[in-house]
Structures are given as C-alpha cells and as structure tokens.
TrEMBL record:
Membrane-spanning parts: 20-36, 48-67, 87-104
Name of the protein in question: DUF3593 domain-containing protein
Lineage: Bacteria, Bacillati, Cyanobacteriota, Cyanophyceae, Synechococcales
UniProt keyword list: Membrane, Transmembrane, Transmembrane helix
InterPro entries hit by this protein: DUF3593
C-alpha cells in the first residue's frame, strides 16, 4: 500500500473545490439551530442572531455572484459588495451578543 506524503495531501486539499464542503457545513448548523430552538437555555434574541447568520450566508452568495457578473472579480475585490455582505454578519453577531448580555443582566443573584 502506498501512503501519500503530507505535501501530497496538502496539494490535494489546495486543489479541492470548497463549494460542496461549504454547502455541507449548513447541515450541522441547521441541526444547531433546531437544537437551539428546542432548548430553552439560549436567549431568544441570540437565537434570532444565529438565524440571521443564514441570511449573511445567503447575501454573501448573492453579492459574490453580482461581483463576478458585474465586475468579473471575486467578492473580496469589490469593497462595496464585500462590506454590504459583512454588514449582515455584524447584525447577526450583534444580536447574538446582545441576547446574551440581556440574559446575563436578567439573572437574579441569590445570596445565601
């Protein structure tokens, strides 16, 4: 049996199309969202932030397509589109953090 060297493995990973892995990564994230919805331990506002992360993913795809179709460039090369896509990530992250901050503020400290 012939074993691949670490260089060969790295080169194979570099040449691999990440698209299918990107799509497959949504499966565990959707599982997390389902668990978060069922669990009563996460703040509702934070759950909305986690849901909006999917909007960020969708908008990133849309802006990447627009950057390619309009300018023939990658998304990271078109600052206006890249910034607009990242704004959705900022919004979702802000809701996650705000939800946890509010939950921490609402906890009652019990002194014995």
């Amino acid at each position: 049996m012939i074993f691949a060297t670490s260089t060969e493995i790295l080169n194979a990973l570099i040449d691999m199309d990440p698209g299918p892995l990107y799509g497959l990564s949504l499966i565990p994230y959707l599982g997390f969202l389902w668990w978060a919805q069922q669990s009563k331990s996460l703040p509702r506002l934070s759950i909305w932030g986690f849901r909006l992360t999917l909007l960020f993913v969708f908008m990133t795809i849309i802006f990447a397509i627009l950057a390619d179709q309009i300018y023939g460039l990658e998304l990271v090369e078109v600052d206006a589109f890249h910034g607009a896509a990242e704004a959705f990530l900022v919004l979702s992250d802000a809701l996650v953090v705000l939800g946890f901050i509010r939950a921490a503020q609402q906890q009652v400290v019990k002194n014995s």
